[in-house]
Amino acid sequence: MLGLDRLRALCAVADHGSIAAAARALHVTSSGVSQQLAKLEREVGVPLLIHAGRGVQLTPAGRLLATRGHEVMSLLVRAEAEVASLDDEVSGELRISAIVSAGRVVIPEVVAQLRALHPNLLVHFATDDTDDMLPALLRREVDLAVVDSWMTMPLVLPEEVQRTHIHREPADVALPADHPLAGAHAVDLAAVADLPWSTWRKNESFHTWLVQTLHSRGVAPRFQYEVPEFAAQLEFVARGLAAALVPRLARVWVPDGVAVVPVHPVLERDIFAVRRRDNDRPSVRAGVDALARVFRTVS
User: Fold this and answer.
1) Would you say residue 199 has pLDDT above 70?
2) pTM over 0.90
């Protein structure tokens, strides 16, 4: 019989790409992971890892066993969730991750409501980028993630993930207050193509979406200010240096010198609560319900 801890160690190496990263994810030492893998190799009688430079790679046998190990872990999690669902009490831990704008505006109220309704539930929270949350969800590092999907760049979810739609909102263009279109009822993005843009860092999902969206509207953007925070981007706009596209949920405060104008045609994003299909614990269901309830109050 293969040991679950040893299978878990192999799966972690497959997920994270190295023994050191697997050890960090499992909260153990690298030597501890190495020992588990050595025992697993003795149990199956074939090599599971080969050294490649400073790292390791899984052998064909290692990849096969890691695939089966993930299936075993998923079955165990499902069994635990089914047993837990027999009890209506919401308790234990709930690990939530969310996009920054939701983390600022919505999640504090969600956590407050969960604490009030379920005193025995401990909620952990961290903000992250959608591109990073989904792998973390698949690795079971979080239980529930709040992600966004833009109409011009729809989010593709893995089969193992189930989504619940909880919000839809537009993005507006932020212009310097003295721009000729600052008082318009709506703005075609092609009409502000002369302005440089402030954006998130390259390779982050919002930056990729912005590039794709502007190109689809006939704009060849000039990105001069990469700032991973909408409030800071608006400061560049306030000083007449740039334009910015800002979702309404992220527009907590608009500084003087900024005019916020709706975009035509409208740009919208959907926000989803996502979880693994095999994780239907009462705590996860309570988290989804709280997110949907709080998002309904967001204008």
Assistant:
1) yes
2) no
